[in-house]
Amino acid sequence: MTDTRTTGLFITFEGIDGAGKSSHIEALAQAFQEAGRTVTLTREPGGTPLAEKLRNLLLHDAMDPLTEALVAFAARRDHLVQVIEPALARDEVVISDRFTDATFAYQGAGRGFDWGKLLILERMAQTGCGLEANLMRSPDLTIWFDLPAAVAAERLATARVPDRFEAQPQEFFAAVASGYARRCEAAPQRFARIDAHQPRQAVWQQVVEALQARGHLHAVRGVAA
Ligand code: TYD
């Protein structure tokens, strides 16, 4: 449950590698700034000096599945305590490129790590870092870029040197996508599913509509309301 006392807004972007989130994240941050909001733009794994070190380990060093999940949540805990909670307490808009749904999708559905254990780790890592003792911090809105794994694979084929996840076969990403779908089914009010297999402007239109439908953004330049 999210604390309703703060007016800060916590938005996360999710999707398989190659789903095309990046430029939309930048554009959304700019739209909020133009609307007069202060924006903290961040990412996971990462967002603090310690969490960026953990990101490097997670992306490049082989480790067993529990270690991988613990590293992801250790990075998240530091990120929450150092960056996300303080920014929300200042009533800022926090936009994070990935958050906990990625751990369920990649480590859970992708790697096959126990879903129930991830739920326990989620509660441990996201409780008691700014909210009342028993409240767990979750995003207010998760913008999920849904894209067939085959299309993402085509896009990634021309990308830079792959990290440990990007180097996975297409079936891995199909599993990751099913993990996102499972998280979306479990919390449909938190998720906005974006059809990411569309031209860039049509995808942006969907992002803006998702924000406007929830009353988070009003007029946005270049997009009809
Ligand atoms: P990504 O966010 O796609 O950054 P970049 O665009 O720089 O590659 O890369 C992060 C990778 O880490 C991505 O493949 C997903 C993976 N990941 C996990 O496996 N678990 C997690 O909890 C998170 C946040 C990311």
Please give the structural blueprint:
Elements: E1 9-15, H1 22-34, E2 39-43, H2 49-60, H3 65-89, E3 93-97, H4 100-110, H5 115-125, E4 141-146, H6 149-157, H7 170-186, E5 191-195, H8 200-213
Parallel strand pairs: 1-3, 1-4, 2-3, 4-5
Helix pairs in contact: 2-3, 3-5, 4-7, 6-7
Bound molecules: thymidine-5'-diphosphate (TYD).
Thymidine-5'-diphosphate (TYD) binds next to helix 4.
Q: If you average the pLDDT, what whole number results?
A: 93
| Sheet with the most strands: spatial strand order | 2-3-1-4-5
At the fourth level of CATH, the homologous superfamily is: P-loop containing nucleotide triphosphate hydrolases
Number of domains: 1
Uncertain segments of ≥5 residues (pLDDT<50)? 1-5
Output the CATH topology. Answer: Rossmann fold
User: In CATH's first tier, which class applies?
Assistant: Alpha Beta
The CATH architecture name reads 3-Layer(aba) Sandwich
Distance between the termini: 30 Å
Rg from alpha-carbon coordinates: 17 Å
* Associated small molecules: thymidine-5'-diphosphate
Give the helix/strand class: alpha/beta
Judging from the principal axes of the Cα atoms, what is the shape?
globular
Main sheet specs: 5 strands, parallel
Task: Write up this protein.
Helix content is 50%, strand content 12%. It has a single domain (2-213), classed as P-loop containing nucleotide triphosphate hydrolases (Rossmann fold, 3-Layer(aba) Sandwich). With 225 residues, it is of the alpha/beta class. It is globular. The protein has helices at residues 22-34, 49-60, 65-89, 100-110, 115-125, 149-157, 170-186, 200-213, and strands at residues 9-15, 39-43, 93-97, 141-146, 191-195. It is built from eight helices and five strands. Helix 3 packs parallel to helix 5, helix 4 crosses helix 7 and helix 6 packs across helix 7.
